[in-house]
Amino acid sequence: MSTTSLDTTAEGFIGRIGSRFKGRSGLNFALITVVNVAVFVIVWELVATYSGIPKLFLPKISAIASDIPQMNAEGILLLNLWFSVKNFFIGLAVGVVIGLPLAYAIGSIKFLDRVLSPYLWALYSIPRIILLPLVLLWVGINNNARLAIVAISVLPSLAVVVMDGVKTTDATMLRAARIFGASRWQQFLHVIVPSTIPFIGTGLRMGMLRGLIGLYIGELFITQNGIGSIIAYASVRFRTARVFAVLLLFVLFAVSNLAVTRAIETRLTRWRAPSGL
């Protein structure tokens, strides 16, 4: 048997072993997650039942879970949940459509970097709760204020990460692209964009988290519709279980969005290597 065939056989064996361990690792992670959540739920239920803590402060998990179908039966859950989800994705889209081109422009052009990046970092560092009064003054106490606060939360979170990703693009790859006659657009499309895919994924996750916080803050102040209206209504009536139920749905929505973003990022990074210059 030749050395080449031995190497090929060894590589195939190692690849099969690696894929097997990779599959087991994913299964173990899922199992650990399920067990962790189950233990958390059981401990919460036992503490709430036998600790003597008033249900105003710590309702049972069973009471929280039973409040979800009850809200649905009352006709307030799906309508308000859809209203909040719709506003979140509209605000997210606005933040991405403005923030992503801005990040590529600032990261690629030194003049724009010097002029605009300080303002971008300032917007990123300001707490959303401070900006809310200004947003309410500018656009009024209406649904546009929620969209604005979500977009303002998403835009700098995405832009500062992608901007730094553009700056860290491999200069050797850019020089090679220029040597082979690639235009600026081809350099951008085949070198800069693939190299910044992980940064886009990270920026989207950060933007989503900040956007959800912005949505939550906005809905607590603008309580006509949305999940914030349910929380505000339940809070003034001391219905702690309902508040926890809505917060649970809020967390599940956030986690599912982050998981989808992570999956999309993983798939996109498969074509990260520059090609087709």
Q: Give the termini distance in whole angstroms.
A: 40 Å
What is the helix fraction of residues, given as a range? over 70%
**CATH architecture annotation name of the largest domain:** Orthogonal Bundle
The tally of strands reads 0
What are the key terms here?
277 residues, mainly alpha, MetI-like fold, 2 domains, 11 helices, disordered N terminus
What features would you describe in this structure?
The protein has two domains: 1-52; 61-271, MetI-like fold (Orthogonal Bundle). It is built from eleven helices and no strands. Residues 3-8 and 273-277 have low confidence and may be disordered. Helix 3 packs antiparallel against helix 4 and helix 7 packs antiparallel against helix 8 (184-195). The chain has 277 residues and is mostly helical.
What is the element layout, followed by pairings?
Blueprint: H1 3-50, H2 61-73, H3 77-108, H4 110-125, H5 128-139, H6 143-167, H7 171-179, H8 184-195, H9 197-221, H10 227-236, H11 240-268
Summarize the structure.
The chain is mostly helical.
